Amino acid sequence: MRRTRSRTRAGAGATAVTALAALLAVPAATGTARAAEPERLTIDLASDTGAFHGGASGSLYGVYGDGVPSRNVLEGMHVRTVSTKAQDGPQHPGADALEMLPPFVDSGGKDVYIYMTDIYRGFPYQWPGADGPARLADFKEKIKKQVQQVLTMGDYQDHVVYVPFNEPEGNMFGTGQWSYNKISWLNDPQYYFAAWKEVYHLIKGLDPDARIAGPNTSVLYSQVKGFLQYAKANDVVPDVMTWHELSSPAAVRTNVAKYRQMEKEVGIDPLPINVNEYGHNYHLSVPGQVVQWVSAIEESKIDADLAYWNIDGNLNDSAVEANKGNGQWWLFNAYGQMSGHTVQVTAPHPNQQYTLQGVATLDEAKKQSRAIFGGKSGDADVVFKNIDPKLFGTTVHATVQEIPWTGQVGDSSQPLRLADQELEVGADGTVTLPMTGMNEMSAYQVVLSPGGNGGVSAEPSVSWRKTYEAENATYTGSGYSKNGPEGSPSQVGKFATSGAYNVGGLRTGSDGVLTFDVEVPQDGTYDLSVFANSYNLYDLVKEQGPTNVFLRVDGKDPQELRLPLGYKWVVWGHTDTTVQLTAGKHRITLAAKDPDLGVTKGDAIIDKVDLSLRDGHVTAPAIYEAEYATLSAARPGYTYPGASGPGAVPLAKGDSATFWVHSPTDREAAVSVDHLGGGRASLSLNGEKLDVPKAGGGKKGTDTVRMFLSGGVNKITVTGASRALVLDRLRVSPAGGALTTKVYQAEDGTLTGAAEVTGAHPFASGGKAVTDIGDGKANALTVDVVAGRSGRHAVTIRYSNAEQAPATHYNPDPIARHADLSVNGGPARRVLFPTTFHFNNFWELAVPVTLKKGTNRLTFTAEELPDFNGDTYNQYDQRSPYAPVIDQLAVTPLAEK
Fold first, then answer.
1. How many CA atoms lie within 13 A of 55 on its CB side?
2. 44, containing H or E segment
3. Reported pTM
4. CBM6 domain location, by residue (predicted)?
5. Which pLDDT tens digit goes with each residue over 499-549?
6. CA–CA–CA angle 411, 414, 419 (5° rounding)
7. Spacing of C-alpha 68 from chain mean position
C-alpha cells in the first residue's frame, strides 16, 4: 500500500524517526505528483529459501574465557561457532580452547574450532625442527596431546572441531623460512597432502568420532579441488570445509557456489562450510556494513566467523567491557532471534557491497516475519509482498527499529523504535514501508505480525536527534589536525568513522577549542554523546589514561568529560552527558583548558557529537514485547484486545520468554510484568531464579519487581509456573530506594602480604585503591560487608586493569586479570576482568554472591593459572598472577517485589 513521502534527508534537521512514524500513518493522496521512485528492497513472503540457519554470528578469538565476555553477551548474540587457539597455545593471551569451551556451550554455542597450529608462537608458525619431517613429527606430538586433552572434557568434546592446519599455503606448506620445505602446496601439493593424511589418521585414531576441518586456506583457491580429489581417493575427506573470506559479501555467495560445484565434480556429498574469517576493520562494529555480510552468509546457509584484527575476548568488536554490547552486538541479537525459514530478498543492487542489502524470515507458527537490512544512506522503500491473509489477515502490525553504530568500544542501548503501526495490506498483497533519512552505518529491523486486533501501538523511542561532525565544527587555537579519510571501501583495513574524518588538537599543552554550532527545536534537556578516542599506549595518553576535556554551552555551565580509551587510534567510543538548551541556536564547545576546571592531560581525537531531545519518548519505560521475545516453546497469540503491540504470549507451565534488556549502568530498575491473566510465572535474572512472588493471576494486571540490573545486557526470563499466564510485555525503567546499596572502599579493607594501598591512580574514588593483590594467596584483600537480609546479592567491583603481553602480531594482546573471590571462607570463585586500557581507567563489574544476614567476609586473592596439565606455566607472560587494581565494592540485593 503506497504512502506519501515527505523526504527527510540524512543531513537534515530531524532524522527518519519522526518522518517514518508520520509516513506510516498517512494514506497516499490520489493524483499527487511524485518524485522519482526510490530504491526498493523487496521481501517475498511466498518464497522459502530454506530453514533459518543463523551461521553468521561466529567469532575468531572472540571469547577470552568464562566472563570475558559475559555469558549474557554470548547467549544474547546467539554466537553459533567460535574458532580459537589450541589449549595453552602461545599465540595470544586467553582464548584457550578448553577453558572457553564449557561457558560457550552452556551459553548456547554449537561448535568450537580448535586451531591446532596455534600451539606455536609467531605467524608464520615457528615450529621447531631441522627439516620438514622433524617439524611434522613435533607437530604430531602436540596434536596427540591436544586430542587427549579434549577427550577429558566429557560431553563438551562433542562440540569440538579440529582444524589441523591454518592457511597452510602461506605457513607450514608455503615457501617461507618456517615452511616444511619451502615448496608451496599450491604448486606441488604432495607434501601437504601426505601431512594431511597422517594428521587426519592420527586424530581419528585417538578419537574415532572426531570432526576435522580443512584445508582452511586464506582464500578458496582453485587448488582446493585437487585437495578434495586426494581426500576422496584416500578416505580423508574433512568433516567440515573451511576457508577465509577477507574479501566481500559478493565473494561469499560466488565462492560458496564455486565450492559446491567442485564437490559435484569430485563426487563428494555436500559438506558443512565454515568461512572462519570474514570482514575487515572498516566493516566490524558497523551494523550497516556487517548486515551486508550477514545477508550473503545466511543466503548461503553456512557458518562464518568474524575476523580477528584487534583484541580477543570482545567478540570481534561486538562486546564492550565484560557485559555490554555495541551496535554490532544488537544487530546479531536481532539476527539470532529470527526463526522459521528465510524468504527471497531482492535488493536494488543484488550482491553488491556498500548498497542496501538484507535478510528476512517467515515463521508460520509464530505468524511473524522479520527483516534486517542496511548499507545505504537516504531513502528506500521496503516492500513486503505476497502477505498471506490466512497468516496475517488484511491488516499487519509493523514495528520498525534502527540499530545505530556506537563505535568499537561504545555501549549501545536496545534498538531505537522508529515506528509501531498498523497497516492495511493492499489488494495485491503488499505493504510498503518508506524508509527515509537512513544512515549507511545503521542497520534496521522490521517485525511484521498480524494486525487489526485492537493492539495498542507504542510511540517512537526518540523524537528529535541530530549528528554534528567534528570536521565541520570550528577549531580555534593551536594543534589542529583534520585526520582522514579513515576507513572506506578502498581502505578496508582502516577503521570506520562517521563522515570519514575526525579532528585532533585537544591535548596536553593545547589551547584548542572545538566549537559546534547547533540548533534545537524546543526548550529542554538534551542527551549529548561525544564520539572520541585516545590510544591507550600513546605517550601523552599513558600518563593519565582517559583524556579530559571541557564542555560548555554558550560559554556557560562547564563540565569536565573523560573521553574513551581504545586499543589503537580511531577506535571509537562515546562519553555521554546532558545539557540544558532553549529552542534555537547554541554554541557547544570542547576545550583543552577551562578557567574554572583546569587543563587537558592526554591526547584525543573527536569524530562527532550526537544530540537528542530527552523528552517523554526517551524517559518513558523501555518496552519489550513478549511476542518479540525469544520463546522456548510458546507461540504468540494475536486475539487479545487491549494488549500492547500486536499480541501476547500464553506461557504454559515450563514455557519461557526471554528478554534481552539493556541498562546503561549497574543500578536498580523497576521491571513491570504486564499480563492479561490466566496463570502465574516465575522470574529469572541473568540465569538466576529470583526469590520473589510469582507474577500473574486470574485477571489482567501488572506485577512490578525491583531488580538489580548489570550495566549492559541483562537476560530476564519469564517461565510459566501454573496454568497459562498470558504475557503481554515487560516495561523497564530506572528506580531507586527499594534495593539498598552499601559502598565499601577497598583501602578500608584488610590487606595481607604484598597487597597495598596506592594513590597512583587519581581517578579512583577518593584517589586511593588497592594494588598488588595476587602472585600468591598470601597477598590478599579482605572486606567485611553487611547484608540486610540473607540471599543473593550483587557485588559490584570497581576496578582497573591494563596489563598487556608482548605481541608478535598486529593484534594488541591485553590480558584479562582475575580475582579468586571467597565469601565467608567458602570455595573461591574465579572472576575474569577485561582490560580497561589503563590502570587509571576504572570500570565496574557486577558479580552475584550469596550473603547471610549481617556481616560477611569477602576475600580477594589471585595466583597464576597453570597450563591444562597443571604443572607447567606460560612462558610469554600471557597469564597474569595478579588481580586487578580494586577501588571499591558496592553490595546490593538482587531483587525485591
1. 21
2. strand 39-44
3. 0.96
4. 466-612, 742-892
5. 999 999 999 999 999 999 999 999 999 999 999 999 999 999 999 999 999
6. 140
7. 12
